[in-house]
Design goal:
By secondary structure, the protein is mostly helical. It has one domain. The chain is 70% helix and 3% strand. The chain is built from 7 helices and 2 strands. The chain has a two-stranded antiparallel sheet. A hairpin with a 2-residue loop joins β1 and β2. α1 runs parallel beside α6 and α5 packs antiparallel against α6. The longest helix has 33 residues. The chain starts with a strand and ends with a helix. Keywords: Membrane, Transmembrane, Transmembrane helix.
């Protein structure tokens, strides 16, 4: 594969690492839109603007239970990947591959994290209805 380039300019490896880090984090901004669609309020955005440190150090305080939801979040991530990667490939296949790789790992770790949490909740409760509650 040829080196990554964008609009005719080569992208350095350092810039690629920075880019991968940024997109790996920014894909989670969809959580705020999902919460807005589900609750009708921008409370999570307001909270982060008032408590910017919490966005990094205390993320569990940003959203209330059910504001985002496991399946809504994963579906949104997959929708973003499915739109961004092909559009980016029109300009740079190498950059699209990097993007797809970073976002694939992001979604994979989200699924692994969620699977672990759901299993723990079901084990703790000993009741399959907990699985349904966890997926909301």
């Amino acid at each position: 594969m040829s080196p990554a380039s964008l609009f005719g300019y080569d992208v350095s490896p350092v810039a690629l690492v920075a880019y991968g880090t940024v997109i790996g984090v920014l894909i989670d901004l969809d959580h705020f839109l999902i919460a807005r669609l589900k609750t009708g309020r921008w409370d999570a955005v307001r909270f982060c603007l008032q408590n910017p440190r919490a966005a990094i150090t205390d993320q569990h305080r940003i959203f209330d239970r059910g504001d985002v939801g496991v399946l809504s979040r994963l579906l949104s991530h997959l929708l973003i990947v499915g739109l961004v990667v092909p559009v980016l490939a029109l300009e740079s296949v190498a950059l699209a591959v990097v993007t797809a790789g970073v976002l694939y790992v992001h979604v994979l770790t989200d699924v692994a994290w969620d699977a672990r949490r759901v299993e723990q909740q079901v084990d703790d409760a000993g009741d399959e209805t907990e699985l349904v509650r966890a997926l909301r």
